[in-house]
C-alpha cells in the first residue's frame, strides 16, 4: 500500500492540548498507532483487536484503546489515544458498548470507520436469556432489556463480524485485498470448527441453566440451547436486587445448578456470596473482554476452549 504521512489534525491537537501534558505522561504505556508503514488500525477492545490482527496479518499495525486488564465498558480515552485515532487509517469499534469511543469516532475525520454492531444482528437481552422462564423465577427480569453487545461470545456472530471486517479492509487497502480474503476465510473456518465443538460439547448435559455475574453470555446460551441467569445485567458493575438474589437461589435448587460463574476483570465478591448462601461452587466463565495473566488462555480461541470446558463441568456433561 502507499504510505500516507499525514499532519496531525486540528481535532487531535485540540484534544491533546485540552487534556494536558500530564495526561500524556500518565498514559506513556499507550502505543501510538499513526503513520507507520503499514495499514494502521485502532481497535476499541480485545475481541476487535484480535480480529484485526488475524485478518490483517503482517499488513496491519493494530492498537487497542482498551489496555490488558482494563474493563472496557466504562473506558475513558486519553489524549494520546485520541490523537492516534485521528491519525490512523481505520477504526474498528462496537457502537453503544463504549460511549467514549463512540464520541471519539463520531468526531474523527477517518474515512474507514468499521462498526462491528452493523456487521451482524444484535438482540435485546435482560438478565435471563434462553427461554427458561421458569415458574419459580418471579423476578420478571428486573434488569430492563437492552441491546446486548456481547456478540463475539457467539462464534457464529463473531464469524459474521470477521467477514465484514475483512471486506472493509479489502476496500480500504486494496493492494493487500487478496491476503485479507485468505486470512478472513481461514479465521471463519476456525470459528466454524469452534461452533461445532460447542454444539457437540453442550448437546447432552444434565441441566441447561447456568448462573453468571455479568449478562455477557446470552448469545452463547441461545446458540447452544442453554439459559443464562445473570446476577447483574449487561453492566458488570450493577448491583442485583434482594429479590433477584432470592430467586436465583430458588432457581439453582430447582434446576440442579451447581456453579456460579464469575469473570476475571470484575470483583467476584457477589458471586462468592451467593454461592456460599446457596451451597454452590464458583468458577470462571470469561467474557473475553481482555486477556491478562489471570485468563485461562492466551487468545480468543484458547479462552473459549476453557469456557466450554467450564460449562461442560458445571452443566453435567454426559
Record keyword descriptors for this entry.
318 residues, 11 strands, alpha/beta, globular, five-stranded mixed beta sheet
How would you briefly describe this protein structure?
It contains ten helices and eleven strands.
Task: Describe the fold and architecture.
With 318 residues, the chain is α/β, with parallel strands linked by helices. It has helices at residues 10-26, 46-56, 79-86, 99-107, 155-172, 177-201, 218-223, 242-255, 269-277, 300-315, and strands spanning 39-43, 60-64, 90-93, 112-115, 124-125, 128-129, 146-147, 209-212, 227-230, 259-262, 281-284. It has a five-stranded mixed β-sheet with strand order 6-9-8-10-11, with helices on both faces. Helix 4 links the parallel strand 3 (90-93) and strand 4 (112-115). Helix 1 packs antiparallel against helix 3 (79-86), helix 2 packs across helix 5 (155-172) and helix 5 packs antiparallel against helix 6 (177-201). The protein starts with 9 loop residues before the first helix and ends with a helix.
Strand order, main sheet: write it out. Answer: 6-9-8-10-11
N-to-C series of helices and strands: HEHEHEHEEEEHHEHEHEHEH
So how many helices? 10
Distance between the termini: 53 Å
Helix content: 40-55%
The shape, in one word, is globular
- Tell me the radius of gyration: 21 Å
The description of the largest β-sheet is:
5 strands, mixed
Strand elements, count: 11
Low-confidence stretches: 1-31, 133-138
Which structural class do the helices and strands define? alpha/beta
Amino acid at each position: 500500500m502507499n504510505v500516507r504521512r499525514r499532519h496531525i489534525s486540528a481535532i487531535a491537537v485540540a484534544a491533546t492540548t485540552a487534556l494536558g501534558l500530564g495526561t500524556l505522561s500518565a498514559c506513556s504505556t499507550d502505543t501510538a498507532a499513526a503513520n507507520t508503514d503499514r495499514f494502521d488500525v485502532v481497535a476499541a477492545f480485545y475481541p476487535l483487536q484480535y480480529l484485526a490482527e488475524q485478518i490483517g496479518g503482517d499488513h496491519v499495525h493494530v492498537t487497542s484503546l482498551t489496555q490488558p486488564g482494563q474493563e472496557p465498558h466504562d473506558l475513558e480515552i486519553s489524549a494520546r489515544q485520541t490523537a492516534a485515532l485521528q491519525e490512523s487509517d481505520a477504526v474498528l469499534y462496537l457502537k453503544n458498548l463504549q460511549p467514549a469511543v463512540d464520541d471519539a469516532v463520531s468526531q474523527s475525520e477517518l474515512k474507514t470507520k468499521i462498526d462491528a454492531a452493523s456487521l451482524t444482528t444484535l438482540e435485546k437481552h435482560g438478565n435471563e436469556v434462553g427461554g427458561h422462564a421458569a415458574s419459580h423465577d418471579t423476578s420478571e427480569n428486573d434488569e430492563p432489556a437492552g441491546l446486548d453487545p456481547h456478540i463475539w461470545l457467539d462464534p457464529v456472530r463473531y464469524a459474521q463480524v470477521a467477514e465484514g471486517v475483512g471486506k472493509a479492509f479489502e476496500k480500504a487497502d486494496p493492494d493487500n485485498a487478496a491476503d485479507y480474503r485468505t486470512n478472513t476465510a481461514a479465521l471463519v473456518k476456525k470459528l466454524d470448527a469452534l461452533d461445532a465443538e460447542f454444539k457437540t460439547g453442550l448437546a447432552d448435559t444434565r441441566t441447561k441453566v447456568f448462573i453468571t455475574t455479568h449478562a455477557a453470555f446470552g448469545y452463547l446460551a441461545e446458540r447452544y440451547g442453554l439459559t443464562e441467569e445473570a446476577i447483574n445485567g449487561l453492566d458488570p458493575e450493577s448491583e442485583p436486587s434482594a429479590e433477584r438474589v432470592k430467586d436465583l437461589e430458588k432457581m439453582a435448587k430447582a434446576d440442579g445448578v451447581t456453579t456460579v460463574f464469575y469473570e476475571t476483570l470484575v470483583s467476584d465478591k457477589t458471586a462468592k456470596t451467593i454461592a456460599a448462601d446457596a451451597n454452590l461452587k464458583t468458577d470462571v466463565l470469561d467474557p473475553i473482554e481482555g486477556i491478562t495473566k489471570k485468563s485461562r488462555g492466551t487468545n480468543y480461541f484458547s479462552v473459549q476452549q476453557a469456557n466450554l470446558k467450564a460449562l461442560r463441568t458445571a452443566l453435567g456433561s454426559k
